[in-house]
Amino acid sequence: MAPEATNHERIYRGIKSDYLDGRFVVGQRIDMTMIADRHRVSLTPVRDAMHRLAGEELMEAHMDGGFRILIPDRERLFHLYAWNAHHIQSAVNASTEDALVRNMAEFAENPLPPSDLLRVHHVAAFFHALVTATGNLEYAAAVERSNERLAYVRLAEMSYFRRPDRELTQLVNPVTNNVHLNLRRRLWSYHRRRIEHVTAISNRVTADSTDGNGAVF
Fold this sequence. Notes:
Blueprint: H1 3-20, H2 32-39, H3 43-55, E1 59-61, E2 67-69, H4 74-94, H5 97-109, H6 116-132, H7 137-149, H8 151-160, H9 164-172, H10 179-196, H11 198-208
Antiparallel strand pairs: 1-2
Helix pairs in contact: 1-3, 2-3, 4-10, 5-6, 6-7, 6-8, 8-11
């Protein structure tokens, strides 16, 4: 790979890592010059990375120029929740019981993380583990993409729902009998709750943009 291509990939991965670590603020323009200075590159690879992330529906154009993170509006969020529920349940149906139990085992051994951001990563990893039990790479790629698109929404969920730790613990606890049925019920309960509260969650994501949490690069 040419040095220029390697450099572009490094910047892309760095910005995406910042995105997944919750370092951007909803609604605010991202300072691409600061990113370029931090990585000691010109604006070109930063701008190229932003366009690439926009293609992945993680960024969008800001009205004042540049980019900001893309948050699905209420209607898109409703459909994204529903798609995620049906897709993961479909993957569960397509997996063997042994594969599901094996992939869930690591979550039984590790306690729920203490911070909201780490819990968002924990949920994403759990869903990814379920779909990889199919052995189908397309299932895994599709859920990885939805996990990324929902990252900031899930952060808002943590402050919206009461005792999210209790819900997440119940979600990832090991299933010992009727694995397919009980796991599908858990998954639908998790997603149905969000679908029922989609308007309030959508509003909370926007409200969090004024809380001053996170850094605007």
